[in-house]
Amino acid sequence: MAPENTYLTSQGNESERQADAARIAEQSLTLNLHTEKFLKDLPFESSGTLIDFGAGTGGAHPVLVNYASHIIATEVEEKKLRMAEAYAQTKELNNKATFEYRLGGIAGLELANESIDTIYGRLIWQHLDSPTRSSEMRASRTALKRGGIFAGEDMDLLTWRLEPTTPTFDFFIDSLIKLYQKKGTEPRMGPKLTALCEGAGFEIIKVNTYAIPASGNDRFKRLHLGIFQAVGGGFVGTGMMTEEQFKNEFAQLTADIMDESRTAHTPLVTQIAARKI
Hints:
Largest sheet: 7 strands, mixed
Strand order of the largest sheet: 3-2-1-4-5-10-7
CATH superfamily: Vaccinia Virus protein VP39
Strand content: 15-25%
Distance between the termini: 48 Å
Number of helices: 10
């Protein structure tokens, strides 16, 4: 049985819904600031259609509504799609754009060729194995109009830092890298986005990198813990840890990260924008 994740997923009770709302609020206050800064000068078709690939619970939607009149949110977990839909309603985002929620990836949407103005994906490409990445990139290029924009953001997990570090933090980072390797996914996707785009025939038009430090009692430290807790099921499910071991290690990790004498740095995020030529 995977450990319960009360920070990133909703099981339906009020406390968990509040936790989900808190997580999305953290995204809006932090990740979205960097997303908005990166996207604002790009040549978007603001009256066009945008695909949010791997939309999750819709954390990027308050930004994306400024760059399209219709948003197609794709996600492999139906529960997250429903949360994204509820979030758009709560934030009244439907007043700025229309939304469509589709289960699966871009390759399964059966879109008309050159029918999409923009494709965006944040922290999704790292979770795909190589064949799936290739398939989704081909589908993205086929769906985009000539001159359409492909924008992505992803991390290099090897740059995740806690200063000063601890044995438990180092253990979790090492375990996370091994988990990605077991699954055939890519823990260093951020710096590989450029090659991914160029390999699909896109023209690179903008690249940026950033990391977010959280010191003292900064509440953003909770998002670090949320990410580690979210992958706890993977550690247990693959036999890398027992449920009891994960519980104990995570308790120590929580103490380490929330220690006001330490600073937690997010992995370095690479942002990239490319044009279909």
